[in-house]
Specification:
Layout lengths: L1 E4 L8 E4 L9 E11 L2 H6 L15 E8 L11 E4 L10 H4 L12 H4 L6 E5 L3 E3 L6 H4 L5 H11 L7 E5 L5 H10 L3 E6 L5 H6 L4 E4 L4 H7 L3 E6 L4 H8 L2 E9 L11 H6 L3 E4 L5 H12 L7 E5 L3 H9 L6 E5 L3
Parallel strand pairs: 8-9, 8-11, 9-10, 11-12, 12-13, 14-15
Antiparallel strand pairs: 1-2, 3-4, 3-6, 3-15, 4-5, 5-7
Helix pairs in contact: 5-6, 5-11, 8-9
The structure holds zinc ion (ZN) (2 copies).
Length: 333
Amino acid sequence: MRAAVIARFDQPWELQQLPDPRPQPGQVLIRVRASGMCGTDLHVHHGLFPLQPPIVAGHEPVGDVVELGAGVTRLRVGDRVGVHWHQQGCGRCAACQSGREGGCAEAQTWMHLGGGNSELMLAWASGCTLLPDGLDAATAAPIFCAGYTVMSGLRNADPRPGERVAVLGLGGLGHLALQFSHALGLATFAITGQAGKAAELRAMGADEVLIGGDDPGRALAAAGGADVILSTTNSARQVASAFRALRPGGRLVNMGVTDSPIAVDVMALMMGQRQLRGSSQDERSDLYEALQLVAAGKVRPAIETYPLAQANAVRERLAAGKVRYRAVLLHDR
Ligand SMILES: [Zn+2]
Ligand SMILES: [Zn+2]
């Protein structure tokens, strides 16, 4: 199989021929059709995860099941599936027993089995989710990390009817958060530093687009504040600024890996019962809900597509901030 391999950290990814893998008991073999490129892949590239090269990255894979390992009964050959980050927990710890396998210290991920930047990949059957009929692989791919993450963030913000949501950071995650919030009927503001995205964000459902810069809280406060802020930016400074524009009782849900600790205004935190929350991929129903909204055409991932052979060039494009929303590698080209 052809694969984009990280042979050494901080070096260009190499297109290599690797032996085809075979599924172990409980696993399936997937012929990958599309694989989204996430900002986290840049952290992998720089060696910030506890991994030893060679590595095949890619944690937004979608493809066809082509072989079942022993004991797999819930999937069939030919199923169209995507695979999310935490595929299987130990089954016995408190996190697993309470249905939150993502919190399991022994959770199996793409880091154990190999990711989707490869023509074939292994996955635990329990980590596969069926694609809704009619949803194409490239459109579905970003939902398996970006979409799942922000749908969990939105649900974990507990938005109530009539509340106003603001999305901070409008890239791969943020443009989906904006659309999910709008699709649920919530008034939704977009706060971006890129004025050139304003028309697109309005078309995606933003009731108002605020140009944030380094102090997005000021722009948001001037616009009346928000009850919920869904933050996907990496800038701790921007998160702290936005926090000050939460209305009393408001919740800021952080989903970005920030460049430094977030220094929230303690008086704002206390005096208005405001909350700083964190969220990542949570309940499986969040992923299902996100896929259904995309399949229904209510949410449209904005993707740019490239052949797998260009994986390294796409990584460079992502690192340079040139990917507008989400880049997806297509393996059939
Ligand atoms: Zn990701
Ligand atoms: Zn466990």
